[in-house]
Design brief:
heterotrimer; A alpha/beta; B alpha+beta; C alpha/beta; A: alpha/beta; five-stranded mixed β-sheet; 10 helices; B: eight-stranded mixed β-sheet; four-stranded antiparallel β-sheet
Chain lengths: 317, 342, 144
């Protein structure tokens, strides 16, 4: 990790020296153990704030929208996919950004680690050789890093950047995850079981919209939630309104969600937000042979059609 | 102090008795999250646990509440104000930081304009706090006029000493609650133990934030470019405001259906872009910089002017829950250390 | 909560595109073809204009079934509106059923201006299906 940190700093220094970019968006040390934070570097003397570790979980593509200058961005696999979609949607132009791609071994979920410690506070944490050495006031524990990855990292299909200008670090092997097994399993449940699962999950939602605000692909000036003419859904935690909020936000991300997990990590209440997104990703892949963020050339699935798109869902009396 | 004593193992049966006369809310764990839930028996409650994810302001100021409902016919329109709760409520296991937020909310909702919805709930709420024996590194209650064993906003404060709690009676409501509950008085020995615990815990807390002179510094650095730097990573997600015990901004909406409907008050956030969007389309707080700065100013300057109290209780939820680790302590310390600003 | 009486009649909303399906419904009427009267028709310019929120709002307000019908592929008055609709609604139907909505509450069909008979058949089939499913409960907004 230290090696990658050094490489990122070197790249950043070069870019600033050559004036290739005005701004570098990367990660810096956070104010809590197991926590890194987005960092904006513009001067050479700020470069040493940049780090790389297993807690660089944020999707920095969020910060690209509406920028008019040249920017470098540190991007993991999922982040680069978000960048691809943003370019296709004209939110940033390709020649405006220098993508510093980093092959990712998955990010560690701080909350998973905390829950494994039964409420005992983490005072210090260190990562070494695939292990997390956690120290508290009266305890020390060594954990296997790979057992505490973020949920989205466990189903990741693109750890390596799909697009980059500079690659920092060696490519990693993709996890041989059987895609969408979890979705297929849930599809096999009865409607009652499915309904009950979502009722339980959405009951936790407090309508804070952190999921929406953390998502790099949610950049609408006016979100449908805030529409009052017409008012599509109410803003209380009413079960029906809340369900429709999540269903429609997922629907608006159909074929656009890159499953970076920013939404579920931002959620303070632990709602299983990505469940709906994964279903749509599977459907989009199976029906339209499209996966978000993999190709600058492939047209977004809901912006196009094929004359022979499947009609298996339709009524043919 | 006036105090009783209770064994920790007797808390559960004590709560069982209270459940008969009150709606009792206590910290409960569900799927790894600890939040206040209504309990029907004492053994559902946790009390040796980290602080709840959501703050208890929801019991005085719920996420949404109906202010009135209406139904109309061709010639008439009837308004109906929902009745208050049937039973008084008792919130058990609040931390002193959260209890202190009630004293601020009392000033906001009970000031020049008296909010009957809040005040009605407040008058029917008993607060039983538990002092913090292990404040977290992100806690900074002592920086903002509170403390791990502060009694502000509580009716009763439980101070843990070994296998017992000293039950400190803070208010008349507390006295009434313990009346005829058969708890023994706490002797001097126990009270001394409690005092020792309090001293030790307070001394072990992180320094937190320097609030001396902070208001003036904030007032004089409104236009300082440092705000751009400090707030650049903010997502405007609003989690800080939703989980904050002392944040109290709200929106009022109407939900109408046919010839009836209701007017509802619900939580709003100054971090949402629509918060100050004017009908003309102009927004005086167009970016996260203006909105985040506003939040800090409101809590650490404006509320001091209007209510004489800092609008922050140092609970640290905004620090631990912020998706991008925008640490308010860092922000305040940066402002406090600004040179060339008084 | 109302008990489901033997006389319960479902409320069904049909979004029909102006140029084909609505005309087809008209033809069914002119031809005096009988079909169940549970349907309330909403005319839209094109099936591609239909915002998924229309369907969800209907379900929220207690509508028991929603039918969306447009021109056959290749016959859209606006050339490609129904192709977009086809993709959108494939995904929406699948998503809603994944959340536990009963299969058959939302239906899609192509009905051309000359298919009065087909219109009646579709309405009959949809109404029958909704009758077996019973009143919609899943996304209904209860008074809070």
């Amino acid at each position: 990790m230290q090696e990658l940190t050094n490489m990122i700093r070197e790249v950043a220094r070069d870019l600033l020296k050559q004036k290739s970019v005005d701004l570098i968006i990367g990660f810096a040390q956070g104010t809590m153990p197991l926590c890194s934070t987005p960092c904006f570097v513009r001067q050479d003397d700020e470069v040493d704030r940049l780090i790389w570790d297993s807690f660089c979980e944020n999707n920095l593509a969020k910060y690209l929208v509406k920028r008019s200058n040249k920017i470098a961005i540190v991007a993991k696999g999922c982040d680069t996919r978000a960048v691809v979609e943003l370019i296709k949607e004209n939110q940033i132009s390709r020649d405006q950004i220098v993508i510093i791609g980093i092959p990712c071994q998955g990010m560690v979920d701080r909350r998973l680690v905390e829950s494994a410690l039964n409420g005992k506070e983490i005072q210090e944490a260190e990562e070494m050789n695939g292990e997390l050495i956690i120290k508290g006031k009266i305890f020390e524990k060594v954990l296997n890093r790979d057992e505490f990855l973020c949920l989205s990292c466990k189903t990741c299909t693109h750890r390596n950047p799909v697009i980059y200008d500079i690659l920092v670090g060696d490519p990693v092997t993709e996890i041989d995850t059987k895609p969408y097994l979890d979705v297929a399993k849930f599809e096999a449940l009865t409607p009652e079981e499915q309904g009950e699962y979502f009722s339980r999950e959405f009951a936790k939602c407090i309508r804070c919209y952190a999921c929406r605000n953390a998502c790099p692909l949610c950049y609408c000036q006016e979100c449908f939630v805030d529409s009052s003419k017409p008012q599509w859904i109410g803003k209380t935690t009413n079960a029906s309104d809340t369900a429709i909020f999540h269903i429609m936000r997922a629907f608006h991300l159909a074929g656009r969600c890159v499953e970076c997990g920013a939404c579920e990590r931002a959620c303070p209440m632990g709602v299983d937000i990505r469940k709906l997104n994964r279903k749509l990703s599977k459907d989009v892949k199976e029906r339209f042979d499209y996966e978000a963020g993999l190709s600058l050339e492939q047209v977004a699935p809901l912006s196009t059609f094929q004359p022979d798109d499947s009609e298996d869902f339709m009524l043919h009396p | 102090m006036k105090a009783k004593i209770i064994k920790k193992t007797d808390i559960s049966s004590f709560l069982d008795r209270l459940v008969k006369d009150y709606e009792v809310f206590a910290p409960v764990e569900k799927e790894g999250l600890i939040n206040f839930e209504r309990i029907s028996s004492g053994n559902e409650a946790l009390f040796d646990c980290p602080n709840t994810k959501m703050s208890p302001k929801q019991f005085l100021f719920p996420q949404s509440e109906t202010l009135f409902s209406y139904s109309s016919t061709k010639d008439t329109c009837e308004l109906e104000v929902p009745p208050g709760p049937e039973k008084p409520q008792l919130i058990f296991g609040i931390r002193p930081c959260d209890a202190m937020s009630f004293t601020l909310l009392d000033k906001v909702f009970g000031g020049d304009f008296k909010d009957p919805y809040y005040l009605n709930r407040r008058a029917n709420t008993i607060v039983v706090s538990i002092g913090c024996l292990s404040p977290k590194a992100t806690c900074f209650c002592t920086s903002v006029g509170g403390g791990p064993f502060s009694t502000e906003g509580s009716d009763i404060l439980l101070i843990g000493i070994g296998d017992k709690y000293v039950v400190q009676i803070v208010s008349d409501n507390g006295t009434k609650l313990l009346d005829k509950k058969g708890l023994e008085d706490a002797g001097k020995e126990k009270l001394d133990l409690a005092a020792g615990v309090i001293k030790k815990t307070e001394a072990a807390m992180n320094p937190g934030v320097e609030t001396e002179g902070l208001k003036e510094k904030l007032d004089n650095s409104f236009d300082d470019p440092i705000w751009q730097e400090l707030t650049e990573k903010c997502l405007g997600c609003g989690v800080c405001t939703y989980l904050c015990p002392s944040c109290h901004c709200f929106d009022i909406v109407d939900e109408a259906a046919d010839s009836g409907g209701k007017r509802i008050r619900l939580w709003d956030s100054c971090q949402f872009p629509l918060f100050t969007l004017q009908a003309s389309g102009f927004n005086p707080r167009p970016t996260v910089k203006e909105r985040f700065r506003q939040r800090v100013m409101h809590k650490f300057s404006y509320l001091l002017d209007s209510c004489g109290q800092i609008g922050c209780v140092g609970c640290g939820r905004c620090i631990t829950e912020c998706p991008v680790n925008l640490d308010i302590r860092q922000v305040l310390n940066s402002i406090a250390q600004l040179e060339g600003v008084k | 909560m109302m008990a489901e009486s033997k006389d319960w009649q479902p409320k069904i909303v049909a979004f029909l595109c102006n140029w084909c399906s609505y005309a087809g419904a008209d033809l069914a009427g002119i031809s005096r073809i009988q079909y169940p009267t549970n349907v309330r028709v909403i005319r839209v310019p094109c099936s591609g204009r239909i915002n998924p929120f229309f369907i969800l709002a209907s379900l929220q307000h207690g509508i028991d079934g929603v039918l969306i019908s447009g021109c056959h592929p290749g016959e859209c008055h606006y050339l490609t509106g129904n192709y977009s609709a086809r993709r959108k609604f494939a995904l929406l139907k699948s998503l809603l059923e994944y959340t536990g909505l009963e299969e058959g509450r939302i239906q899609f069909s192509w009905i051309s201006a000359s298919e009065g008979v087909k219109f009646a058949k579709v309405i009959a089939e949809v109404t029958e299906k909704i009758k077996t499913l019973g009143p919609a409960k899943k996304l209904v907004k209860n008074p809070s």
